[in-house]
Amino acid sequence: MNERIHSAPDRQQEIYVNGISGIKSPIPFDIVRLEQKAKALITPEAYAYIAGGAGLEDTMQHNRADFNKWRILPRMLRDVEKRDISINLFGKKLPTPILTCPIGVLEMVDKEADLAVARATSKLGIPMIFSNQASVAMEKCAAAMGNQPRLFQLYWSKNNDLVASLVQRAEKCGCDAIVLTLDTTMLGWRTQDLDHAYLPFLKGKGIAQYTSDPVFQKMLELPDDRVVPKPRLNLDAADHLLQVRSKGKIKYMLKAIKTFVSTYSRPSLTWEDISFLREHTKLPIILKGINHPDDAKKAVDYGMNGIIVSNHGGRQVDGAVSTIEMLPSVVEAVNDQIPVLIDSGIRSGADIFKSLALGAKAVCVGRPYVYGLAIDGQRGVETVLKNFIADFELNMGLAGCKNISEINASFLKSTD
Predict the structure, then answer these.
(1) What was the pLDDT predicted at 229?
(2) Least enclosed by CB within 10 Å: which of 46, 327, 385, 416?
(3) What are phi and psi of 100, to 5 degrees?
(4) Which residues are 285's β-sheet partners?
(5) Taking 70 as the threshold, does the pLDDT of residue 272 lie above it?
(6) Is the pTM of this model over 0.85?
(7) Dihedrals φ, ψ of 289, to 5°?
């Protein structure tokens, strides 16, 4: 049963009334302080993995700068006393236009990891996109969610049998769609991670979807003649082995890590491979990572069911276009044939309003909820999402819209 989402004024009143008793939220409302507080509570390696971007991190900065190029143009004397922020997406009515982005290796910031996010999103009726690089298997998260909405992110590995197994598991555990991530066939040049010489997967973290998969488990039984670099033997290497052992039997986990690294992604993936996915699932397929309008048209031509305009939060291509910059042309290209969503750089209710005004049907929020998870676990995720909801509702009403259908580009002004 969803927890009722209070109206934004009720949310404000709750916060201010608590203040009379000296009760303040442990979750900062300011997005900069939210990140700073989370950073102070987690390891430098964890923070780098979550907050870092590719190269000079120019794409991350561009994502934010381009949201600021659009200004909201409010209209006055409109009846907005009763506001409705619900949407219909992929045949389901959702209470808000917000989904959570798939973010891997959440065990780095909270011991309950994906399970805490699953419980938090379920209470609010917000769809969670399960990460392919999760710390908790999708079945465990689904069991905690009841009939609440969820989707599964797929990274296409070198083994098609594994791809088929993952999507079939997603169907069985009640996922509403497959979100195929296209922009990570190789890891971007992530300078903060490189500075720490740290990749969590090499410690057995973030590979729960694999070690729980029957096809992957059979892959571990095969002879292994692959040659991989070996670390220099010292105290750090010994500590690494201890961390690997904490994830399971040492020989099993070492082979699992080696197998994962060798099969994780497939740079040779093309549009022609999409038919394989369609043959192995009846679920809607959403392509995540589309930015070019020609690719958006191809998604329609190949029978895809949705698009997420995304640059992976600036983690893949340094100096890439921003998502809000490309959203209008992608929306125009698909011509309302399939829904277009957006992620990367969304940090406020105003960002959500701008995205919807430019044609997005919904938005995906990423790093902020992870910062909430780092600070206060499940409650932290709930609080961050409630804050986004209230912030958006207030911006919508104050701009002069009483529901999502009234939001359009006439409420924006470009500064370009």
Answers:
(1) 67
(2) 416
(3) -100, 135
(4) 178
(5) yes
(6) yes
(7) 120, 5
d(CA 352, CA 97): 8
Which of these, 307, 411, 274, lies nearest to 350 by C-alpha position? Answer: 411
Structure tokens at 20: 């009379």
Q: d(Cα 396, Cα 72) in Å, to the nearest integer?
A: 10
Tokens of 206: 């973030």
Percent of the chain residues past pLDDT 70, beyond the cut: 93
Helices and strands: H and E segment counts in the chain: 17, 12
C-alpha–C-alpha distance, residues 62 and 182, integer Å:
20
Domain interval for residue 65: 23-190+265-414
Asked if residue 226 is part of any domain, the answer here is no
312 is annotated as an active-site residue: yes
Out of 62, 196, 280, 312, pick the active-site residue. 312
Position 257 in a domain: no
Counted domains in the chain? 1
Q: What would you measure as the largest C-alpha separation in the chain, in angstroms?
A: 72
The count of residues in the chain is 416
Alpha helices, DSSP H only, in 271-366?
Answer: 274-280, 293-301, 323-334, 349-357
Domain with residue 282: its CATH number is 3.20.20.70
